[in-house]
Amino acid sequence: MSNFTFSRSEARVREAATIVPGGVNSNFRLGVAPTPLVFERGEGPYLHDIDGNRLIDYYLALGPMILGHSPADVIAAAHGQLDKGLLYGGQSELEYEAAHRVSAMVPCAERVRFAGSGSEAVQLALRLARAVTERLTVIKFEGHYHGWLDSVLWSNGTPFDQVGPEESPTKYRASAGQDPATGENLEVLSWNQEEQIVSRIAKGDVAAVIMEATMCNSGGIFAKPGYLEAVRDACTKHGTILIFDEVITGFRVGPGGAQKRLGVTPDLATFAKAMANGFTVAAVAGRAEIMDQLSSGHIMHGGTYNAQPVAMAAAIATMDRLVQSETFEAMERNGTRLMNGIAEAFAEAGLPATVTGYPQIFTVALGLTEPAENYRGLAKVDRAAYRHFTAALLGNGVRALERGAWFLCTEHTEDVVDETLAAVRKTLADIGPD
Ligand code: PMP
Q1: Which InterPro entries does the entry mention (predicted)?
Q2: Last residue of a domain, which of 289, 322, 355?
Q3: Tell me: the pLDDT tens digits for 270-283?
Q4: Same-domain pairing of 207 and 313
């Protein structure tokens, strides 16, 4: 049935587990079916693994590789900086240039600070919000992922049958070893419930509301019409800082991220991933009057590797491509073709599934007949069957995430999309109905 085999990867990961726990360096890489893979190189839309397979890649490292693997212009920019020094412990013109580019692209970005990872950017945004408002309470939503740090790793990634009724969203830690005290000033609400959030903000004691403006981690779920605007208004009215976590959507769903595409501007936003096409760059961007509070030094923000010059050169080259109109036009076209083709293939196979999100990041939810409105709406997704599908799809040369997300890059051309759709159809025929 399968044209590709992964025995070398399987053996290497197993052997490596004697030195690297689980054989992987992020929990998101654990337990992948049929095995976590070991790669040799990436090129355009393809990854080459140590079994000699060339796989069409829709993981894209969980988002960063918006221009595909090893794009010549980004690599050349990074090469150009390599001989000039790796870290200065001081400033370079590159970080100022990069900040200007972010500001030109992203509506909320009057000021920009670079950071080391998405998780760190979230930490900075929350610290800023608490410092500036002199309030402690932060609100997040069920199923929204904001990084793996103790303070925000709450109420995601747990079986749905453990959560209470929607009117009283459940706050639970998502990892063993997480300090419960870090959640003391965190409240968890159900997303897309306007009345719930607006009435909570109206109490006047909320420092910040943080959300993925479109839920991309749990499923491709859009805000209901008017929801983001209502949250925006309530925050403005009651002095609460609205934070959009654009670590996935930023520089991916359009040059200005979700905030530009959806037309709602937050006070602060966090970025990482697609901003530098694989180089470690993250950022907080936001309103001047908030961000400028960092100037006096009383709000701490550190990071040895922040604005690393090679990464900054790569970020500039990436953003220079993303502002060219044809970059996104092509991704819209090819991504839409892929979304429609996958939806048709599942329908033809007699399998209920929704395909929702943006052409550049969408989710296939097997088992749903209607798009979910929030985290709980995903409870009916048949995760085991979809995992079986992605494992079989890998055997047909296409690598897609088990949890349903598909990331698109500029190198997923019409031909690559057609090849992918043929693999999807073959896979569905191979595995047949349950
Ligand atoms: N926020 C969101 C919305 C994310 O998707 C992620 C990463 N998946 C993070 C924060 C954390 O970013 P990082 O993995 O770079 O720490």
Answers
A1: Aminotrans_3, Aminotrans_3_PPA_site, PyrdxlP-dep_Trfase, PyrdxlP-dep_Trfase_major, PyrdxlP-dep_Trfase_small
A2: 322
A3: 999 999 999 999 99
A4: yes
- Name which of 369, 295, 273, 344 is nearest 28 in CA terms: 273
Statement: the pTM of the whole predicted model exceeds 0.90: yes
Ligand 1 center–CA 78 separation, angstroms:
23
Domain boundaries, position 234: 72-322
**Counting atoms of ligand 1 from 1, which one is nearest the CA of 119?**
16
Q: How large is the greatest C-alpha to C-alpha distance in the chain, in angstroms?
A: 63
- Do the domain assignments include residue 154? yes
375 shares a domain with 259: no
Of 287, 322, 357, which one is at a domain's C-terminal end?
Answer: 322
Strands 353-358 and 361-366: antiparallel
Distance CA 289, CA 276 (A): 27
Place of tokens 């390599």: 82
Q: Where are the beta strands (DSSP E) in 103-231?
A: 111-115, 137-141, 186-189, 206-211
- Confirm whether 245 is a catalytic residue: yes
Q: Is 308 in the pocket of ligand 1 (CB under 6 A)?
A: no
How confident is the model at residue 324, as a pLDDT? 96
